[in-house]
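Morning!

This is the sequence you dropped in the shared folder:
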Amino acid sequence: MVNKEKSAIMFSKGTSSSAKRKFKGLLHIADEAFSDRYLSLPVHLGRSITSAFGYLKEKIWKKIQGWKEKFLSRAGKEILVKAVAQAIPMYAMSCFDITKTFCDDISSMVCRYWWNNQDDERHHWLSWQCLSNAKSKGSLGFRDLHIFNLAMLAKQGWRFLQDPESLCGRVLRAKYFPNGNIVDAVAAPGISYTWRSILKGVGLLKEGLIWRVGDGTKIKIWHDPWIPFGDTRRPRSLRGRSPISLVADLLDPTTGDWDADIVASLFQPEDVHSILSINICDGMEDNLAWHFDPRGQFGELNVPTKIKMFVWRLAHNILANRMKISRLGVDLDTKRPRPARFSWGWVNSGNLSCSAPPARAPFELWKKDEDIQLRVVTFLCEWWNVCNKVNAGESIADPKVVCSKVEKSLVEFLSLKRKEKPPKPPDVHKWEKTPDNHVKINFDGSCQCRSWWSEAVACIAAISGANKIGANRIIFESEASNLVQALKSKTYDMSSVGVVIKEARSLCNLNFESFDFSFCHRACNNAAHELAKLGVISESMDSYWDDHAPSCIATVLARDLAGPF
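The structure's back. Tokens below.
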């Protein structure tokens, strides 16, 4: 319900008085309001995008120019930049293309703040482009705002693909692409700036989209990306004069699988192999998915953030030492400070088991154990602080005091990192009996390749077997944790095996009163594993044992059934 007494209507500047009265009467809204921004977004953009989004720069500047912010450590500045300064324009960037020029202005502002320190040092030791590379590449992982802006707009396009029947999706489709798909929409004169911005994101989205083959009726063979190999994800073969244009024409209508003869006659051998290896299931619809799955884990040095920042600066050779400052034209004594020579000599004496000179220390560290890495980088950070204090006019610190501070820092950090945990009881893995009125089916797949696919096909076979014996309450158990997770949610519905996963879920909903998918340890699935191995070498397509078990699993079954459940 809409409360019209609390609502107001907004008109553009060129709207006539008669038109305003007409719309007010139709909508039964009496109040007229005008505001530059609504929900923190500009209402009217005009010709100057910079002016429309100028308030974003003002907000960022207020957050980073305060006197408290100037005295933050490097680690504190990193958090402020990532969590505050670069987070402010995110909401606007999810709806509008704020332009590369405007993003560069914000980045320049943040970059100046990053390199300014308490001593008003303003030299930029590394470019912003280097700082905005990923941490996995040795940088700090600051956002490239223009690329992030396009990614946010691409995400809006992805939402329209996944939920085309949403209110926003239906409105935009009715106005801009009534007879097609959002990936086929093109910019035209007179469109809104919001829609023009989303189309830029869709253009980026197209670079990574791929069609998952279902019935093939929506996929154009020679134009759409549908082959999950190569850079373009399209056929490398030339079309020639072939009248076949849809992927549906490459499928055998009887079996629902690929028609190998037609595929071989149209495509080159490398394309034939790629096409025939695509998993399809009869009766499923085509759908667009994201081809690249950027999952991955990268190792890192487990030390306090301020020490990470120091090691990063040391590894990139951007510590502001006397030699580097002299290269900027500042007249300084370039001799190494006495405390640096003395302290590093103490390290070389064997206390921290490091023989590399300071400049090579970050690279030699990765050859050491984690405990030694932690001790060395903690010492290096403290050594650098002592040098800076001496250069500022303070007295030389006693080496014993320095070492004591290092040991204290290590103890404090390790006490937080290594909290005492009660010992875990040893894991005992044993196959368990199902509850009353339920049937448990363990399944496993085995093949020379495509293990994900074999596990999924084995699941379909298990569902078919349960249906044949007339079971209504089923528990399907597998050692493939990813497959179980995929079957219990929609996480992998857009993956290459998504068609089989959706088919398995659909068959269960159709045939069983209740069902569940459960993960078990490999030791609890030995019987299914041995049968899968037998199936690989067996000449029979299907094998069924009613009153006895094959000899290869007799011992396994006896062990599983022995003892209390």
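Headline: Confidence is low (pLDDT under 50) at residues 294-299, 336-363.

More detail when I'm at my desk.
O.
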